[in-house]
Amino acid sequence: MKILVGVKRVVDHNVKVRVKADGSAVDLDNLKMAINPFDEIAVEAAVRLKEAGIASEVVVVSIGPEKAQDTLRQALAMGADRAILVPYAGLSEPLAVAKTLKALVAKEAAQLVMLGKQAIDDDCNQTGQMLAALLDWPQGTFASELKVADGQVEVVREIDGGLETIALALPAVVSVDLRLNEPRFASLPSIMKAKKKPLEQVTAEELGVDLSPRLELLSAVEPPVRQAGGVLVATAAELVAKLKTEAAVL
Amino acid sequence: MSQTARESMEFDVVIVGAGPAGLSAACKLMQQAEAAGQELSVCVVEKGSEVGAHILSGAILETRALDELFPDWAERGAPLNTPVTQDQILLLHNQQRALKLPNWMVPKTLHNEGNYIISLGNLCRWLAEQAEALGVEIFPGFAASEVLYREDGSVKGIATGDMGVGRNGEANDSYMPGMELHTKYTLFAEGCRGHLGKELYQRFALDRDADCQHYGLGIKELWDIEPSKHSPGLVLHGTGWPLSDGTSGGFFLYHGDNNQVVAGLIVDLNYSNPHLSPFDEFQRLKHHPALAQYLEGGKRVAYGARAIAKGGFNALPKMTFPGGLLIGCNAGTLNFAKIKGTHTAMKSGLLAAEAVFEALRQGDSGGNELLAYSERFKASWLYEELHSSRNFGPALHKFGQVLGGAFNFIDQNLFGGKLPIRLRDNVPDHAQMKQAALCPRIVYPKPDGVLSFDKLSSVFLSNTNHVEDQPCHLQLLDPDVPMQHNLPRFHEPAQRYCPAGVYEVIQEEAGKRLQINAQNCLHCKTCDIKDPAQNIRWIAPEGGGGPSYPNM
């Protein structure tokens, strides 16, 4: 069984982003970028399936800038076998990504696609669902446990108020949640080996996919600054006065 | 977690730290190997999560060393975007008034024509790209935690730290043992007060013939300012208010590109009043009209702090020992008279690369003491430059800012640093602290949240993170010292000199105790330097932890 794993290059989760002075977008200049943490969990899950002898090959895919090669190399260092980059300099939208993945599923004849439940930059949480619909495959989203046996995937899903266990017939799409696993650290030798693993570039044109945006970013604004929690008063009389005059609740 | 379980890898040269010194050395090694048609394996380990994440500097760059390394740096897209257009030096009398020093009175070393205002972090990111293109293996996120020695006592390499160790010292699920990197020569380029360098100083008595090192704590912020107030290339340096009582230091404000300015204060760590808080000095400094005129209406976007080694020539240790070399600020090559350390750190890396490559080309199998490095150093412009600035810092320490400044003017402008005297300053910074009861308390104004801020909101802007479940990387040699020695005598100064609020004295029912919030640590090393009892030992936390500075 071949597994295709989607990974996105996003701003590192430790970095506090800010909006550009002109309000046109979030400023990403020279910020630390990293593999989307949910995608990292998906890579870990896929690699574990390979180590357990269930998967035959793990192929990681990214749609993004040239620098996304670093992200793919990181996934290769964790144990993926090879990587595909679909170069795209703009902001990738879920539908375009889903269509690209669909084309790659056909090209690679993958039986299982694994993805993070969402990317931490745009928080869309749409790609997995859209891909399943486009492929007309069953989907198991928000996976916190995963078993693959006898042509079936058993997924424990994190849903509102509890857990739901479903069985999917392969081929299928699975999007993973935080509790599925704790990704491994890549060791120095595996990072060096990863540099020699195959990383292929396939253009959107070759796949017959149009990546151009369908959404227009009108403006970006920072969340309003929270007001200080309270005022320290010296006496009860002052408190009563303030409640009457400033808060106007008495 | 026995150490026998560690695997090892072999490299010709291992470099600790991806800063200007380490990356310059790496590039130069590969350039020479390429020119000689020789195979060479060079590896750089870096504790930051990426190259540049832990780099913090003013910074004004003198391009001399960069010109030597990459004469075509402009075509290669080096991030030197803002040439210095104007130098101003200000003496702040009080919180309102300032005197602008006429140009002719400025020591020559503080003229910046031909230099560039840069982000050193971005320069290092660029240098790392050049190094990788030349075939250097760079491993960010891996902290060198241990020096390895051969049986004959020479340095054999380093070991990276274990990953996935819990607070209690037990391995957790993601545990990955550290890796031994064995090598012919190890270049230590950890920056000021590197923790492995500290061990090497002791083991090989490297500073036996040197004056003691002196340090400053640099605190820096990056601001977006109103475009109408921005004049790219304007460089402001100054001193005076709010530092007083013999505390020396200086501030800077540089107008870079993108409508941004960097502002910072360097407080010399030989200050004696334990009530002093470098962080709060900087916060109130920003209210001075000389700085506020630019910052008002702007927005602070980044914050960070780092100790600098400013002892200069007199404090330079022996930089060679069997199997390795000390380079850059790990040795203390900063030129304090110019307040610049990048070109000197880079040059020391270039010299080290030349010495190491020459040895390897002649079939050296490693582990020797590369005295050729000392010879190259002595014959270089770096030596000449540091030698001519040797009295600058000591003069300020000894004679104070005014007389010391006058001495420096005479020495640097009239005699080119060649006055045949050697001022010395041999009291270590940590021994300068006076008892709290004998010193005036300093009451700092409350931050206004516009120009000045508190420590926590500042640390927030440094993107600092450490995996929570790991052993504390700030070790107390004697856990009783803070409360029994430092608190009564010095009112535990760590609460104030730490620019990240790592150290807090907490009152509990059982009494007071020192709480160490290690996850806030900016890796500035001030506690390791300034603790009056020398009781705090900074060791490398799990790789990847620490600040994530953008554009610093």
Any overview of this molecule?
The complex is a heterodimer of chains A (250) and B (552). Chain A is of the alpha/beta class and 250 residues long. Chain A has one domain (2-224): Rossmann fold, CATH 3.40.50. Chain A is built from seven helices and eleven strands. Chain A has helices at 37-51, 68-78, 94-108, 127-135, 188-194, 204-207, 236-245; strands at 2-6, 9-11, 33-35, 57-64, 82-87, 112-116, 139-149, 152-159, 162-169, 172-176, 199-201. Chain A has a nine-stranded mixed beta sheet, sandwiched between helices. A two-stranded antiparallel sheet of chain A has the order 2-3. In chain A, a hairpin with a 2-residue loop joins strand 7 and strand 8 (152-159). In chain A, helix 2 (68-78) crosses helix 5 and helix 3 (94-108) packs across helix 4. Chain B is of the alpha+beta class and 552 residues long. Among the domains of chain B are: 10-71 and 121-165 and 172-210 and 317-388, 3-Layer(bba) Sandwich (FAD/NAD(P)-binding domain), CATH 3.50.50.60; 392-423, no CATH class. Chain B has helices at 20-36, 64-69, 120-133, 195-203, 278-285, 289-295, 342-361, 371-378, 381-388, 392-414, 455-460, 481-490, 494-497, 526-530; strands at 7-16, 42-46, 60-61, 82-83, 86-92, 98-100, 116-117, 137-140, 144-149, 155-160, 163-165, 171-176, 179-188, 215-224, 234-240, 249-255, 260-268, 299-309, 320-321, 324-326, 474-476, 503-508, 511-516, 536-538. In chain B, the strands form six sheets. In chain B, strands 1, 2, 8, 9, 10, 13, 19 and 20 form an eight-stranded mixed beta sheet that branches. In chain B, strands 6-5-15-16-17-14-18 form a seven-stranded mixed beta sheet. Chain B is globular. Chain B starts with 6 loop residues before the first strand and ends in a 14-residue tail after the last strand. The mean pLDDT of chain B is 93. At the A-B interface, helix 5 of A face helix 3 and strand 12 of B. Chain A: It comes from Pseudomonas taeanensis MS-3. Chain A: Its cofactor is AMP. Chain A: GO terms for molecular function: electron transfer activity. Chain A: Pfam families: ETF (PF01012). Chain A: Belongs to the ETF beta-subunit/FixA family.
